[in-house]
Write a structure and sequence with these properties.
- The protein is α+β, with helices and mostly antiparallel strands.
- The chain has a single domain, classed as Collagenase (Catalytic Domain) (3-Layer(aba) Sandwich).
- It is built from 7 helices and 17 strands.
- A hairpin with a 5-residue loop joins strand 7 and strand 8.
- The chain is globular and about 55 Å long.
- The two termini are about 25 Å apart.
- This is A disintegrin and metallopeptidase domain 22.
Length: about 325
């Protein structure tokens, strides 16, 4: 139960509703080194080569390929790269063979989604849409499982088998090598709530979380049905979210706007799969902004100061309408 409470607090902060600042609709997240975070949150790590499973044309048998790319071949002059609607991957790790069956998460990006980068001299480059390689699904044969993956540059994401959460990502020295597909898979402690094991770079703000507990779903629904009309309880809710990536995030991802944005969207896709399952709520990205030249305000190690400055920045410079605007930062708060 404590893990569930902490997990809920983490997601509230992601969506800008953490009680730290009483801000309602702005939030900050601190990132720090990969290795120290993963050592604290995951028990084991293995280096593996995942495989993609593809059905033979006109047959029922699957063939295995080490080419993980899900991009659709054809129309090279198209405005956006497109990806197949469904895919399957095999991940052999920790003595188990996991088959991950996933579908493209068509609800992740809004119809008006825009990506913006701010360059030297304040030059703004803006593009409508963005490459969409973000999938959700289940482990084959496991109805209580869930999976969230991106496939733009190898496999990045998480899957949960009912006992453990697993994080998968390309190894650092493999990202630029098209012929190699070595990935790291991290295994969480047993029976931890899966939200606690979202990418370990994202740390909770250093305060005591509120003392609330997520009850089992059936019990919670019975209580809520006493207070809310049935149609409200069963209706899917939507949260429109905008992400701002600071300059340290940009530097962390090899000074690449593409890699920075891909990573941020992958994290939101992971949060969405949990919200969808636990709260019947979807997270929809409406915009993403990346600071490619420098930070637009001084980011302090004091989270209250940073949050205050970010709220000012949102008020004065962000034009998009969103339920929450969240800053991804690599400063350690």
């Amino acid at each position: 139960m404590q893990a569930a409470a902490a997990a809920s607090f983490w997601l509230l902060c992601v969506l800008g509703t953490c009680p730290l600042a009483r801000c309602g609709r702005a939030g900050v997240a601190s990132l720090k080194g990969l290795e120290r975070g993963k050592e604290n949150r995951f028990l084991e790590r293995q280096s593996i080569i995942p495989l993609r499973l593809i059905y033979r044309l006109g047959g029922e048998d699957e063939t295995q390929h080490n080419q993980l790319d899900t991009r659709v071949r054809g129309d090279p002059g198209g405005p956006q790269l497109t990806h197949v609607d469904k895919a399957s991957f095999r991940v052999d790790a920790f003595g188990t063979s996991f088959v991950l069956d996933v579908l493209l998460n068509h609800e992740l990006l809004s119809s008006g989604y825009v990506e913006r980068q701010i360059e030297h001299g304040g030059k703004v480059v803006e593009n409508k849409g963005g490459e969409h390689c973000y999938y959700q699904g289940q482990i084959r044969g496991n109805p209580v499982s869930f999976v969230a993956l991106s496939t733009c540059h190898g496999l990045h994401g998480m899957f949960y088998d009912g006992n453990h959460t697993y994080l998968i990502e390309p190894e650092e020295n493999e990202k630029s090598q098209e012929s190699s597909h070595c990935h790291s898979v991290y295994k969480s402690r047993q029976f931890e709530f899966p939200l606690d094991d979202l990418p370990s770079e994202f740390q909770r703000v250093n305060i005591t979380p509120p003392q609330f507990i997520l009850k089992p779903r059936l019990k919670r629904r019975k209580r809520q049905l006493l207070r809310f009309p049935r149609n409200v309880e069963e209706e899917t809710k939507y949260i429109e979210l905008m992400i701002v990536n600071d300059h340290l995030m940009f530097k962390k991802h090899r000074l690449s706007v593409v890699y920075t944005n891909t990573y941020a969207k992958s994290v939101v896709n992971m949060a969405d799969v949990i919200y969808k399952d636990q709260l019947k709520t979807r997270i929809v990205l409406v915009a993403m902004e990346t600071w490619a030249a420098d930070n637009k305000f001084a980011i302090s190690e004091n989270p209250l100061i940073t949050l205050r400055e970010f709220m000012k920045y949102r008020r004065d410079f962000i034009k998009e309408k969103a339920d929450a605007v969240h800053l991804f930062s690599y400063v350690t708060f």
